[in-house]
Design goal:
This protein is mainly α. The protein has one domain. The chain contains 3 helices and no strands. Keywords: Disulfide bond, Mitochondrion.
Length: 87
Amino acid sequence: MSDSSNPPVPTRKERKLCHSKRDEYLACLDQHKIGDPATAGTLCQELREAMFKRCPDSWANYFEQLRAMEKQKEAAYEQASRLRKVK
């Protein structure tokens, strides 16, 4: 018995394409020095749309959330490192 609320699991080929689109999008954010995708505005919008087209929504949302959290963590470590050097 299948549950119609769960989308089918992506094939290996679909996952590879999803990850490729994710990597292109994240590279664009890096190029423009954007840490939080929510602040990107129209920059990288086409690549973001391509990622959402090729990846399950839950994956694409997770990739963006993970990016924001990683950048926040990096900023916190950098700030702590600067504070230690000042003392």
